[in-house]
Structures are given as C-alpha cells and as structure tokens.
C-alpha cells in the first residue's frame, strides 16, 4: 500500500497536483453490490466527498437479490451469512435486529447448509426407493473423511500425485470409490448405492463451489478458502436488508442506477478535453441538481471539467458520457472480466492480470423454487436428494443439453412453513444451469414435477402452483454466480487480480498487448468523437483498483469476502490521502 509522504509542495507530485485546485480526489466506484457499497461508504465516512457509484442494473445489491412473494422473501442470490465470529455481515445484521426472527433451525452449523438443521435429508433413487438412513450416514461419514483430506494439500503443503490431476473431484471420486470397494462388510447392492451417491454429493459440492464440476476445482488450492467459525444464518426479512443498511449512509445522489460502463481509460496522465463539449447529464440523472447538497450554477459532476484540470482516469459509459476521475474502484464480477476485459480497459491490462483472469474460475449456480398447495413430503424431511443409480460407475458430471435436469442435485424444504408456505428449493450448476436458464417456466416446472414423481415413487404429485428461479449465468451484468480456484490457479492469482494499476514496479511495462490505444484519443467508435490530448506527466498511483468476492484470497465466493474487499480498496485510498486530509488541503 502506498502512502503520500509529500505535502503537495512539489509541482511534480502527481498525487497533489490538481488537488490544490479541487481539494478532493474524485473516486468512481463501478458496481453497487456489497463490495462497491462498502468501498463508497468507507470513503465517505473518512471525509471523501467526491465519490460516484455507477451501477449498470436498475437496482443496488449485485448478487444479492431478495424477492418478496406474499408474506415470504426468497433469495435468488446470497442466502446465508456464513459464520458469525468476526464476520462483518453477521455483526451488521445482528446489531440491526435482522436475526431476531431467525429460528434455531435456521442456525445451521453443517458444512453443506440446508434451510433447516431440523429433520433428515431423504436420499431417493431414480427407481423411487429411499436409501436407508444407516447407509446414508455411513456414506456421509466416509465422504466427509475424504473431504477433510482435500483440505490438507494446501494447509500442510502436501504434494499432489499425478493420478488426482490436481482436481478435487477426481481425487474425491477415486478415494471414496476405492474405500467403498475395499469394504469387506458391505454387500454388493449396498456398495452400488454408495458408489452412486458419490456423484450426488459431488453435484452438491459443485453447487456450493459454483463450478461446472468439482473436477475443475484445484486440489492444491482448495484448502486456502477459509471458513469463519460459528453458525450459518438466514435473514428472514431478506439478505437485501444488509445491502440497504450499507446504502443508508450513502447520499442518494452518489449512486447512479442504469449506468453501465463501456470502458475505463487509465494512465491518461495529463489528458484533457479539447474537442466538442461533453453534454451535461439529463434531468433523470441522480447527480443532476436536486437542490440537495448542490451548489447553485454547479455543472453536473462528470458532465464537464475545467480545461486546466488533469485526470489520470476517464470512465466511458454506455451512454457515451465521459466521467474523469483520480481513481476508479472496479467491482464487476470475474464473469464480466472474463467476457469483457479486452474492451473494458484501455490501455490493456498487464499480462499477469490477464493470465489470472483466465486461470481463476467462475461458474453458475441457480435455484429453482417450487411452491405447492400442500406438502407431499413428511414433516421430518428437510430435503429430497436425487441419486441416479446408473451413475455408480460414472466419472463425469457433464450431461447432453437434453438431459440438463440430471444435474439437479435435489430440493431443500424451506423452513418454517408458517413463513414460506410449502416451498422446495432446487439446486443446479454448471453448463446444465445455463441450459435450464434458456427454458421457459412451464417447461422447467414440468420437468421438475416429473423428477419428483420419479424419485419419490408418487405419481400423484401435482404441478407446483408457482415457480421462481435465478439466471445468473445469462445475466450480462454478472455472467456467473461466484468464483473458485480452478485447476491451474492458486491464491496468488487472486492477489494478482486484486493488484491496483498502474503497477509501481514499472508503469510503462505494465500494459498488456490485448488492447492497443491510439495515441491522443479517448473515445469508442460507438460514441461521437471527443479526442483528448495525452501529454504524459508523472504517473499517478492507484488509478484503477479491484474489489469483489473474487479478489479476496481467503473468503472468495462469500458476501463477507465481497464487503471486506471493498473496505480494503477504500483503505488504500484513505491511507494514500491521509496526510493531505490532515493538512486540510
């Protein structure tokens, strides 16, 4: 982390040059999810006044999406607060009374979280038979023993043998399979059931990791993800309440909704406009003069800037508006970075950051909520888990598109029924989730009903009266649910993804070759020309910062990881400007 040791007396100091005129650094945050809101809130609380949050969608929250139907709130995105001891999400929710109605059954300490720890999971086969409870318990104990082994490769720096292909899925499948086959006490029929259960457990694990298959998750890096101690909690009023609490301290004019970004032009040094005037923002803009906190006659922020001012970064929006800034905090998902990094940054990203984006993984985990008039499951049942007996010898979790439904690992029972009604929550991940997203509600409801009839052996199960489902993979603002360490990647790639630009070692050699910028120009071919001079001056540090769950080395894939990453990037800037703020500049 860099700090500003200069007081601004030197005209060559890129940090303070221009701040003597404006008094405040301008920070643009891209994305109003937990990371973006946490960053903006931290900056505002520390005295930064020129902060703008650009959100592409029509609402804040990012991958938190609580949908209210009737009296119940359903989570299409983040559902659980994972761990309580030191978890900032938990402490925020607890201090605000959001957990007062959380039942004991919704405080799960299990590794694989259900909606209730009460009751038992019903493991059903595609032949309509329930697997005996003792068989399920024996298999679960065996699987968890092997799961614990997968953690040791990173934590104890154990070498990974070639047979495992450095894959959690390959290692787990073969280790569990060998132990089952070598058990002298089990009859062959029981062994076949347990072998089939391997695939079901790996489907659940894949949904938890948001990978297409656990075969794609790195064995050597798997143990670096850190679980916060304490129970997992559900927020009855909706996870969106946490988002709203974060946003409460942020003035309304700071957040602009429906404002997608096309490109971040960084390392501009002394770039300034010399062409056509940039149009001011329209009346519908959140930053347009509303009479609150605005100076009379003040230009809309980002609409125009003084010809003598120098800005190292300019954010080009899809509506062709150019917003100059000292710093930009990028919180977009890894899925968006994978899809758009070549066009999203000019100059192109450093080679090692591009490589990290490629190596790290992000997949899709979707939920399918089915609401029924009456429950067809028993009161002791907290989930229906689907075991395909013909998958006992299978070594893959990939299915042809027409068999996408075989990737559904099962349905959890939402608890308590007094709050939710009679609702099941199905889980599906990977490429099969993307196929599901393309189907209409009627088709998905029909297929799920047929599966429930088949696995329960009850042909009279009615179709659900309502269906609600997520579609994170096809959402252009996310392109996936959350990240994981893919085979070939490690925590070092997470660090590289999080590293601010320009690199301090050598800003001139930091640029990748994926996107070449024409000298002296800053515009997209889709927008009217607004050429800028690009006279280079001293390089300003931390022009582009990166946050979001995928940038947290220990807590990737979690809401607390996202929040902490936003606070981390804000802290970099707070530290950088501490001396200047203390001097009252």
Automatic annotation (TrEMBL):
Organism: Colobus angolensis palliatus (Peters' Angolan colobus)
Matches recorded under SUPFAM superfamilies: FAD-linked reductases, C-terminal domain, FAD/NAD(P)-binding domain
Keywords: FAD, Flavoprotein
UniProt domain Amine oxidase: residue ranges: 34-268, 308-574
The name this protein goes by in its record: Amine oxidase domain-containing protein
Disordered: annotated segments: 271-305, 504-534
GO biological process, one term: spermine catabolic process
The keyword Signal belongs to this UniProt entry's keyword annotation: no
Gene3D superfamilies for the chain: 3.90.660.10, FAD/NAD(P)-binding domain (3.50.50.60)
Biased composition (Basic and acidic residues): 274-291
Pfam (any one): Amino_oxidase
